[in-house]
Design brief:
six-stranded parallel β-sheet; 6 strands; Rossmann fold; about 220 residues
Length: about 220
């Protein structure tokens, strides 16, 4: 049977990987290292999903490029070295990806991570083999620009109606909405359902189990 969507595109942080606690911890430590006001967990959560430097400029409300670069370097150093906050897949994510691929789905990733970061996450979780293609923050314009999605569509010779975007932030919903791509929001990440709902997703799910069930029965996506 022909599938409704030729491509299922996943955000990574907050959608497949439970990484919010580590991102928050590292951003707060970077602020301390650079002697700037430490942002609240809520403030950091709001910018998760955007490419790192634009996210930092927004979070710290600065146009100072030199300060932003110092914060970027401090964040990377902490993330790769000093911080030991666990960064696991959401429970059930691996089996969901496996079953989707076994059912004949083509999977992709559109993430605010840099390519090195996504490759590292794939290696640590042994999940890279599930994904046919991907776009990262250093390969496209930052979300909520739809550039990542447009690149993925062009690579697969698809139109927006043939793909589905799955993500936990308004940025994921916005970039799909901008090009008329169907989208599903997940509420177990960093942005509240009420904010996701403003961008008219086909559904908002509240767990990996619910997402798994929805994606295996695409006809349920109205």
């Amino acid at each position: 049977m022909k599938k409704r969507y030729e491509l299922l595109i996943f955000d990574w942080d907050g959608t497949v990987m439970d990484s919010a606690a580590k991102i928050i911890s590292c951003m707060q430590q970077a602020a301390r290292h650079c002697d700037v006001a430490v942002p609240s967990p809520e403030a950091v959560s709001h910018i998760i999903g955007i490419s790192l430097k634009p996210a930092i400029m927004q979070l710290f409300n600065t146009q100072d490029d030199a300060l932003a670069e110092r914060l970027v370097l401090a964040y990377k150093e902490v993330y790769l070295g000093a911080d030991t906050t666990p960064c696991p897949l959401f429970a059930g994510a691996d089996s969901m990806l496996s079953e989707l691929v076994n059912a004949g789905n083509i999977l992709a990733v559109a993430t605010g991570k840099a390519r090195r970061g996504l490759n590292r996450a794939w290696q640590q979780t042994n999940t890279g083999h599930y994904f046919t293609t991907s776009r990262c923050a250093d390969e496209a314009e930052s979300k909520p620009s739809p550039d990542m999605l447009l690149q993925l569509l062009a690579e697969r010779h698809l139109i927006p109606e043939q793909a589905l975007m799955i993500g936990d932030t308004t940025y994921d919903m916005q970039m799909a909405q901008a090009i008329g791509m169907d989208r599903v929001g997940v509420s177990y990440g960093v942005h509240a359902p009420v904010n996701l709902a403003r961008h008219e997703p086909k559904a908002i799910v509240h767990s990996i189990a619910e997402l798994h069930q929805l994606l295996l029965a695409e006809d349920n996506i109205k």
